């Protein structure tokens, strides 16, 4: 499979500053040595509990924030060493859809102007071309032209997310980060937005990083699944393999955290011990050892590598090392 992204040894440490002088007193280790490829035309699902570094990862690979170290190749070129004016094509080809459709649309702008903005930013001025493309995109997201003269507050959450999606895809990007795009929406609306995204993916040949903490959504939409814990990828597998045969104790814990109807079942399950450790003072060794029911002595001091168990299935855990 052809790679769209190659991400190598990616680290992101947010400095934590102190009082008015702003001295750095420590770091939040949000991403630690992340290595992953993203293949053309796939939907890579990224799952993990809140605070695990998912959004930081999405923002780094779009170069919306600059990582502390590492390399990010997009179509073979390292975007981290490029200057702003060399990133124009990259910016046009990559887009972000984020969680809150109430915050992502400027309340003072009509929908027409919201959808026109990407053209202006990219120096496209042909009025007729812009109008045609806007009308086309409106029908693609299942809405009518009459929305164009209205303002964001006149729409529901689901409709606003459709409009935000339209803006993200209007210049036909190659790649989209969808960061919890349905988490703020009613469950009844979530499926519509997910279906819209999968349709658009087909229609536009998109590649997507789909971030969610919800395994049922990840199962529905992804081709591959990556599990993140405290800024590290602990398991990476093809979707069906992952759902049938996940190995990492943290992946198991994520499944156990999904509510089950039967009470008896609940009792036999391992529930995650304790809270997510603070990423400004991560545990030594394997970061999951403080909550892992299978932790061995070695796990407290040594950090295992993400290793391939089988084709299309990698796990970062000493339990599975020979
Ligand atoms: P997720 O999307 O999985 O919830 P994030 O990437 O938002 O995780 O956050 C990862 C960690 O980095 C968290 O501990 C979070 O508090 C911290 N963090 C995120 N953004 C910043 C920032 N701008 N400054 C300092 N810490 C941050
Ligand atoms: Mg997030």
Protein architecture, described:
With 322 residues, the protein is of the alpha/beta class. The chain has helices spanning 54-61, 88-93, 111-121, 127-140, 157-169, 187-204, 215-221, 239-245, 249-257, 263-267, 297-301, and strands spanning 3-18, 23-39, 43-47, 69-74, 77-78, 94-97, 175-179, 207-212, 224-229, 232-238, 307-310, 313-315. It is 32% helix and 25% strand. It has an eight-stranded mixed beta sheet, with helices on both faces. The chain has a four-stranded antiparallel beta sheet with strand order 2-1-4-5, with helices on one face. The radius of gyration is 21 Å and the shape is globular. The protein starts with a strand and ends in a 7-residue tail after the last strand. It binds adenosine-5'-diphosphate (ADP) and magnesium ion. The site of magnesium ion has 3 residues, from helix 1. Residues 14, 28, 30, 48, 50-56, 279 line the site of adenosine-5'-diphosphate (ADP).
Structure characteristics:
binds adenosine-5'-diphosphate; alpha/beta; 322 residues; 11 helices; 8-stranded mixed β-sheet; single chain
Strand and helix map with partners:
Layout: E1 3-18, E2 23-39, E3 43-47, H1 54-61, E4 69-74, E5 77-78, H2 88-93, E6 94-97, H3 111-121, H4 127-140, H5 157-169, E7 175-179, H6 187-204, E8 207-212, H7 215-221, E9 224-229, E10 232-238, H8 239-245, H9 249-257, H10 263-267, H11 297-301, E11 307-310, E12 313-315
Parallel strand pairs: 3-8, 3-9, 6-7, 7-8
Antiparallel strand pairs: 1-2, 1-4, 4-5, 9-10, 10-12, 11-12
Helix pairs in contact: 3-5, 5-6
The structure holds adenosine-5'-diphosphate and magnesium ion.
């Amino acid at each position: 499979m052809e790679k769209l992204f190659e991400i190598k040894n990616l680290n992101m440490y947010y400095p934590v500053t102190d009082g008015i002088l702003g001295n750095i007193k420590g770091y939040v280790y949000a991403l630690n040595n992340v290595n992953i490829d993203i293949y053309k035309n796939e939907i890579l699902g990224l799952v993990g509990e809140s605070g695990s570094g998912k959004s930081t990862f999405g923002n780094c690979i779009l170069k919306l924030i600059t990582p502390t170290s590492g390399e990010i190749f997009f179509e073979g070129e390292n975007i981290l060493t490029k200057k702003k004016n060399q990133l124009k094509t990259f910016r046009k080809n990559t887009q972000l859809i984020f969680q809150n459709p109430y915050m992502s649309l400027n309340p003072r702008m009509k929908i027409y102007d919201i959808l026109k903005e990407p053209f202006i930013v990219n120096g496209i001025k042909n009025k007729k071309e812009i109008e045609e493309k806007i009308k086309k995109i409106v029908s693609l997201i299942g809405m009518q032209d009459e929305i164009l003269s209205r303002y964001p507050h006149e729409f529901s959450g689901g409709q606003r997310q459709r409009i935000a999606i339209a803006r993200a895809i209007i210049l036909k990007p190659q790649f989209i980060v969808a960061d919890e795009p349905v988490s703020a929406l009613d469950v009844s609306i979530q499926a519509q937005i997910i279906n819209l995204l999968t349709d658009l993916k087909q229609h536009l040949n998109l590649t997507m990083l789909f971030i969610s903490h919800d395994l049922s959504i990840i199962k529905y939409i992804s081709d591959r699944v990556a599990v993140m814990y405290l800024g590290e990828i602990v398991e990476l597998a093809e979707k069906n393999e992952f759902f049938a045969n996940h190995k990492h104790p943290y992946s198991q814990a994520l499944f156990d955290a999904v509510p089950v109807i039967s009470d008896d079942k609940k009792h036999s399950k391992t529930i995650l011990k304790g809270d997510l450790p603070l990423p400004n003072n991560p545990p030594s060794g394997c970061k999951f050892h403080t909550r892992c029911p299978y932790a061995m002595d070695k796990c407290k001091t040594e950090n295992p590598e993400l290793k391939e168990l089988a084709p299309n299935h990698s796990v970062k855990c000493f339990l599975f090392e020979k």
